[in-house]
Specification:
CATH class of the largest domain: Alpha Beta
Shape: elongated
Strand order of the largest sheet: 4-3-5-1-6-7-2-8
Distance between the termini: 76 Å
Number of strands: 8
Structural class: alpha/beta
Strand content: 5-15%
Largest sheet: 8 strands, mixed
CATH superfamily of the largest domain: Alkaline Phosphatase, subunit A
Number of domains: 2
CATH topology of the largest domain: Alkaline Phosphatase, subunit A
Order of helices and strands: HHHHHHHHHEHHEHHHEEHEHHEHEHEH
Length: 544
C-alpha cells in the first residue's frame, strides 16, 4: 500500500459516504421543520456498503441500473427519515403516512400560510425527491468507483462485521451497544406498511378492531335536549378511592363537591371502568370512549383512524347537537382529530386564554372552564343548539404542579389579569416532585373537585349533564406497583329519571363506586347510548 494512494482514495470514498450517513441519521428536536446533523452511524448504510463491497469483489462494478435502483431506495429512505423525525418534533407523535398524507394540506392551512407559500411547499415536495435521488446516485457512483481498488475491501468487511455484532448484541447483559447508532428507518416503514395494509386490504380493519356500538339504532330522546359536558379528568384513577391514605386526604374535597352538587339541585351516580392505558397515553382512553372500540392494543388506535367508524361525536351531531372539542392541553396541530367529526376544535391557542402561563401546560383548568362556559354555554338554552363538549383537564397531569389558585370571580378568568404576578410566583414556587408525587397529586385532584363543584353549584346551565371520567390511573409512583387499571366515572345531572336509568345499568348513587369494574372503557359507550335513548335494560359489563 502506498501512502499516496491512500491519501487520494480516502477522501474520495469517505466524503460521499459521510454525506449519505448525515442524511440518514438527521435529527429534529423541534419545533421547526429544519433537521440537524447527529454524530451517529446509520446501521442500514453500513450493511448496504458491506453488501456493495462484496458484490464488487465477486462480480465487478455494478451496472447503471443497479446504481440507480440503489439511489432511488436511498432517496426514499432519506425522505422517510426526515418525515419521521420532523413529525415527531412538530406533532409529538410518530408519523402515520396514511393519515398525514391525507391531511397534509390541512396542516399547512393550520399554519395560516398564504396561497403562494402553500404552492411553494407543493413545488418543494415535488423537487426535493428528485434532488435527493440525483445526490444519492452521484454518491453511490463515487463510492462504487473507489471500491474498485481491492486493498481497502477487507478492512471495510471487518468494520462492517464489528458494527453488525455490536448492533446484534444490544440488550445482552443489560448493555446498550447501539448508543452510537441512529434509529433504523426500516422498522418505521414496516409499521407504515402494516397501517396501509390495514386500510387497503378488504375487511382487515373490521377483523382487527372490536365491533362498534350500534349508534344508528338509538336516539338521544332520553336527554331531552340537555347539554352534555364530558370531562376526561387527567390521571383520575381508583387509587384516589382504594388507597386508604389518599381516600382520607380527599374526603373533605369530595364531601365539598357533593355539597356543591346538592346546592345546584344535582345528584351523582358512579361506576368503575377499566382504562385501556396506565399512567399516560390519554388518547387511547379518549378514543375508546368516543368510538366504543377497544384500545388495549395501541396499534388499534392507528388503525381506527384509517376507518370511517362512527363516534359519539358524530352521533350527537346527527341529532342536532353542536359538538366541541375543548383541548387546552394541545399545543401542536392535531389533524387526525378530524376523525371524530367535531364542529369546533379549540386547542391551547384557540380557546382565548389571555392570562399568564402556569408551567408547561399554561392554562389552568378553572380558566379553561370559564372560557368554555362563556363561549359555548352562557347563551340561554332556548336560543341555541344543545352542546356536546369533550374537555380533557390538565392540572392533575404529572408532575401535578404548578397548581393555580382557585379564583372566586369567574369573570376575571376571561381577562388578561386572570391571575396576579404574585399568584403565579407562589404557584411556581411549589415544585413538583417525581420522588414524592402523592401530595401534589392529591392537591391537584382537590383543586379539580373545588372548581368543578363551584361551577355546577350555580353557574352551569340547569339541564347540563356532566360526565366525569378518569382517563387512566396516575403513574406507579402514586398508584403503586401492580395497581388496577380501573378509573371512576361519575354521571352528574338534575334529571332524576336519567340517573335512575344509569342505576339500572349498574351505577351506584354518590361519588364512591366501590364495586370492582367488570367492563372496559369502550364498554361504557353502549351503556351511555342506552341511557340516553331511555332504554336501559342491562347492567354495566353484562356483555362480558
Amino acid at each position: 500500500m502506498r501512502p499516496a494512494a491512500w491519501g487520494g482514495w480516502l477522501p474520495r470514498f469517505a466524503l460521499p459516504l459521510l454525506l449519505l450517513n448525515a442524511l440518514l441519521t438527521m435529527e429534529n428536536h423541534g419545533p421547526g421543520l429544519w433537521p440537524r446533523l447527529a454524530l451517529r452511524v446509520s446501521f442500514e448504510l453500513v450493511m448496504v456498503l458491506v453488501m456493495l463491497t462484496a458484490w464488487i469483489a465477486w462480480r465487478g462494478q455494478p451496472g447503471a441500473r443497479m446504481l440507480r435502483l440503489l439511489a432511488s431506495v436511498t432517496a426514499f429512505w432519506i425522505l422517510a427519515r426526515y418525515l419521521d423525525v420532523t413529525v415527531s418534533a412538530v406533532f409529538g407523535r410518530q408519523i402515520n403516512l396514511y393519515w398525514d398524507s391525507r391531511h397534509a394540506l390541512d396542516v399547512l392551512r393550520m399554519g395560516e400560510l398564504a396561497a403562494w407559500q402553500i404552492g411553494l411547499a407543493a413545488l418543494a415536495a415535488l423537487a426535493i425527491p428528485v434532488l435527493l435521488y440525483g445526490l444519492a446516485w452521484r454518491c453511490w457512483r463515487a463510492i462504487a468507483r473507489e471500491l474498485a481498488w481491492p486493498t481497502p475491501r477487507p478492512a471495510i468487511g471487518l468494520i462492517g462485521l464489528l458494527l453488525f455484532t455490536n448492533f446484534a448484541a444490544h440488550g445482552i447483559g443489560g448493555r446498550d451497544t447501539r448508543w452510537f447508532f441512529s434509529m433504523p428507518v426500516a422498522p418505521i416503514l414496516a409499521q407504515q406498511a402494516a397501517i396501509l395494509a390495514g386500510q387497503l386490504l378488504p375487511g382487515h380493519a373490521a377483523s382487527q378492531l372490536s365491533p362498534s356500538p350500534a349508534f344508528e339504532h338509538s336516539s338521544l330522546a332520553g336527554l331531552r335536549g340537555a347539554d352534555v359536558l364530558l370531562i376526561f379528568a387527567e390521571s383520575y384513577g381508583v387509587t384516589a378511592l382504594d388507597d386508604p391514605q389518599q381516600a382520607a386526604a380527599l374526603a373533605p374535597a369530595r364531601a365539598q363537591l357533593m355539597q356543591a352538587l346538592a346546592a345546584g339541585g344535582r345528584q351523582a351516580v358512579s361506576a368503575r371502568v377499566r382504562s385501556p392505558t396506565f399512567g399516560g397515553a390519554s388518547w387511547l382512553a379518549h378514543a375508546a370512549l368516543l368510538s366504543g372500540v377497544d384500545m388495549q392494543d395501541p396499534g388499534a388506535y392507528e388503525l381506527l383512524l384509517t376507518t370511517d367508524r362512527s363516534t359519539l361525536v358524530r352521533h350527537f351531531k346527527a341529532h342536532g347537537w353542536r359538538t366541541v372539542n375543548w383541548m387546552p392541553g394541545l399545543q401542536k396541530p392535531w389533524p387526525e382529530g378530524s376523525f371524530y367529526g367535531f364542529d369546533r376544535y379549540a386547542d391551547a391557542d384557540r380557546i382565548g386564554y389571555r392570562g399568564p402561563p402556569f408551567g408547561y401546560w399554561r392554562v389552568p383548568d378553572q380558566a379553561s372552564m370559564a372560557l368554555l362556559h362563556a363561549q359555548e354555554l352562557a347563551e340561554p338554552r332556548e336560543e341555541r343548539a344543545p352542546r356536546f363538549i369533550v374537555f380533557p383537564t390538565l392540572t392533575s397531569h404529572a408532575p401535578f404542579r404548578p397548581i393555580a389558585p382557585y379564583v372566586p370571580d369567574w369573570q376575571r378568568l376571561l381577562r388578561a389579569d386572570a391571575y396576579t404576578a404574585a399568584e403565579v410566583a407562589q404557584a411556581v414556587a411549589q415544585p413538583g416532585s417525581w420522588l414524592q408525587p402523592v401530595p401534589a397529586y392529591l392537591e391537584s385532584l382537590a383543586y379539580t373537585f373545588h372548581w368543578l363543584g363551584d361551577y355546577l353549584s350555580g353557574r352551569a346551565p340547569r339541564q347540563l349533564l356532566t360526565i366525569v371520567i378518569g382517563d387512566h390511573q396516575p403513574m406507579a409512583g402514586v398508584s403503586g406497583a401492580g395497581a388496577s387499571w380501573d378509573v371512576p366515572v361519575h354521571i352528574i345531572s338534575t334529571d332524576t329519571q336519567l340517573l335512575k336509568r344509569f342505576e339500572a345499568l349498574g351505577f351506584t348513587p354518590g361519588l364512591l363506586p366501590m364495586r370492582p369494574s367488570t367492563a372496559g372503557m369502550h364498554d361504557l359507550t353502549p351503556v351511555l347510548i342506552a341511557a340516553f335513548d331511555a332504554t336501559a335494560d342491562a347492567p354495566l359489563g353484562s356483555a362480558e
